[in-house]
Amino acid sequence: MATVFVAVLLVGGGLVVVAWAAAAANAMLDARSGGAPVLTAAAAPLREVSRLLRQQRRTLAGADSLLWRIAGAGLVIAAMLKMLVIPFGSFVLADLPVGLVWFNAVDVLLWALWWLLGWGANSSWSLVGGYRFLALALSYELPLMFALTAPAIAAGSLRMLDVQDAQGNLWFVVWMPVAFLIFVASVVAFSSWGPFHTAMSGDIASGVLVELSGVDRLLVLVGRYAVLVAGAAFAVPLFLGGGNGPWLPPSMWVLIKTLVVLAGMLTVRRLFPMIRPDRLAGLAWVIVLPLTIVQVAVVAVIVGVNGGAL
Questions:
Q1: Residue 294 dihedral angles phi and psi, to the nearest 5°
Q2: How far apart, in Å, are the Cα atoms of 109 and each of 41, 137, 252?
Q3: CB 257 within 8 Å of CB 240
Q4: Whole-angstrom Cα distance, residue 135 to residue 138?
């Protein structure tokens, strides 16, 4: 029991540390593009945490404070729930036989959390942000579900250790590039990040964030980064061979690969403009979804001919 408690603390602490590192890296990239001192910007997350901890919480009249604050804290909890099924080499906190489904179920929970953030504030701009996220989710969720199906077919299992072990000869990303790209794009979307941050964009006064202050705002900002980190970490056993790699311990390889995927996600924010939910829906249903189904069909044929993963 004590071992499990320590393991939970280590994984949770690691999640917070990597989330802070992502926030610091993002602040440094912002400073670089704005011509400000880059090294000074590394401390920006600490200054923001200090400011928000001292800021008084405020609530609009008629707000559903309970559900609003449950939604704010729920993002961090959802990220931790995703981390439970991620293998670090041969170690995994919760070795569920349906680990892949668990990840997808928690992802669906994010729909409710982002919408409650918008609804609970009793603010028009927040509510528009919440509904924008639902519109976005309708576009990415179905392609994501098919993208998750491809590794499961190749491994013949929904257990994450089996999915990781099936990549002993060849990482899934090599012969499932479409599924990998859709998975990464979906992680960026359910984190409301980069081109998919319409729920908190400037044209609606930051949307779901507009009425948040103090600790409530801090929890949402931390949770957003934590969800992004958990998604990047899940891509490692799913497509990048898990802890497989020379010289270093498997857990170190999981961390290194997670940081590489995370760096790509941070970069995406600066490469693409924000996509309106209605335009994303057209792109997702006309192009992305058929491509995903073709990817799954190709994987199924290869597994059928080869008798298993490549």
A1: -65, -40
A2: 33, 11, 30
A3: yes
A4: 5
Place of tokens 């799913």: 238
Q: Is 89 helix (H, G, I), strand (E, B) or coil?
A: coil
Other beta carbons less than 10 A from residue 37's beta carbon: 10
Residues of the chain with pLDDT under 50: none
Q: State the number of CA atoms in the 13 A half-sphere of 233 facing the CB.
A: 31
- One-letter identity of residue 26: N
Using alpha carbons, list the distances in angstroms from residue 148 to 42, 167, 239. 35, 15, 10
Read off φ and ψ for residue 167, nearest 5 degrees.
-100, 25
Q: Which residues touch 93 (CB under 8 Å, ≥6 apart)?
A: 4, 7, 8, 11, 83, 84, 85
What residues pair up with 88 in beta bridges, in sequence order?
91
The two tokens of residue 36 are 């400000």
Do 34 and 26 meet the contact criterion of CB atoms below 8 Å apart?
A: no
Residue at token pair 């200090």: 50
Q: Give residues with Cβ within 8 angstroms of 283, minimum separation 6.
A: 139, 275
**Reported pTM:** 0.92
User: What is the rounded CA–CA span in Å between residue 31 and residue 185?
Assistant: 25
Q: Which two tokens stand for residue 274?
A: 């924000």
Q: Which two tokens stand for residue 152?
A: 């499961």
Angle at the Cα of 96 from the Cα atoms of 93 and 98, rounded to 5 degrees = 140
Tokens 């509510």 label which residue? 127
pLDDT at residue 217, rounded to an integer: 92
Residue recorded with tokens 């270093």: 248
Amino acid making up residue 29: L
The answer to whether the beta carbons of residues 275 and 196 sit under 8 Å apart is: yes
Q: How far is CA 45 from the centre of its chain?
A: 19
| 10 Cβ contact list (under 8 Å, min separation 6) | none
